[in-house]
Specification:
single chain; about 325 residues; Rossmann fold; two-stranded parallel ribbon; 11 helices
Length: about 325
């Protein structure tokens, strides 16, 4: 099977490419090496991939480049993970987030329709739920009140996916990822930043009183969910991928302290616009449709991540 992975040099993308190659799929990877964080990190992520791996440096806003790839590579499945990331950055450059996350997704949907792709998998985000008052978050809950530009673009892309399914019969799965972490993690994400700062004895910015809660999901569990979807036939589905276990920020910091072997120096900050109080995934649908059952709990996952971080350094 020829699988196109957009954003395939990034965090989740490179882990997915590695799994797909191990499962003997042919992987066509697109990445534009966006400078939100160091392109060299992303180049390193895919540097060891060889047999069955084809790479294109391309931007999902470039329709001509995308059309050439679809024409040449005979794509069976698209896993669309490329996008502008980060809630806080989206508040300062909203137009760029719309161009990449919404228009870029539209470009891929249109080409998938034109080239009769068999399945389209979209990487969405738990941020679409906004400050949902009902926990855990279910796919049946409203996602009409995002509180950041990033979340709004992800929700808009989901709606485009639904429209392309209804209008053109394109099979689509939208995955709402819940705070994914693990090896090859992005340097801007909390677990990576905290590990780096605590290791170096530098202050850790803690926003709020440390009681905010997140559903942290280890990257291999997310990859399990994505690859399981490639073996199933769906019309249109939105599916949560999380651990379904909420972790308080203060507890997260303590786990990293223990794994690193140093105490954190806390720098207290006010809560930031766009941040939500809690994320918490109801994963019963993923379990029913995909046999999804997350395996890596936060205590083990933090140890795995810190070990990877130390080896990288």
């Amino acid at each position: 099977m020829n699988v196109l992975v957009t954003g395939g040099a990034g965090f989740i993308g490179s882990n997915l490419c590695e799994r797909l190659l191990a499962e003997k799929h042919r992987v066509v990877c697109i990445d534009n090496f966006d400078n939100y964080y160091s392109p060299e990190i992303k180049r390193k992520n895919i540097s060891g991939f060889s047999d069955g791996f084809v790479f294109y440096e391309a931007d999902i806003r470039d329709t001509a480049a995308l059309a050439g790839i679809f024409e040449k590579e005979k794509i069976d499945v698209v896993v669309h993970l490329a996008g502008k990331v980060g809630v806080r950055a989206s508040l300062s450059i909203p137009k760029e987030y719309v161009e990449v996350n919404v228009v870029g997704t539209l470009n891929l949907l249109e080409l998938s329709k034109e080239f009769k792709v068999k399945k389209f998998v979209f990487g969405s985000s738990s941020s679409v739920y906004g400050n949902n008052l009902k926990v855990p978050f279910s796919e049946r809950d409203s996602a009409d009140c995002p509180i950041s530009t990033y979340a709004a673009t992800k929700r808009a892309a989901e709606l485009l996916c639904r429209a392309y399914h209804r209008l053109h019969g394109l099979p689509v799965v939208c995955f709402r990822f819940f705070t994914v972490y693990g090896p090859r993690g992005r340097p801007d994400m909390a677990i990576y930043k905290f590990t780096k700062l605590i290791s170096e004895g530098r202050p850790v910015d803690r926003y709020g009183d440390g009681t905010s809660k997140r559903d942290y999901t280890f990257v291999s569990d997310v990859v399990d969910g994505i690859t399981a979807s490639l073996k199933k036939d769906f019309g249109f589905e939105i599916i949560n991928l999380g651990d379904s276990n909420v972790v308080e920020l203060n507890y997260l910091i303590s786990l990293i302290e223990n794994a690193v072997g140093k105490k954190a120096v806390i720098s207290q900050k006010q809560l930031q616009p766009g941040d939500v109080d809690i994320t918490y995934a109801d994963i019963s649908k993923a379990g029913k449709l995909l046999g999804y059952s997350p395996k890596v709990k936060i205590e083990e996952g933090i140890k795995k991540f810190v070990m990877w971080y130390k080896n990288e350094r």
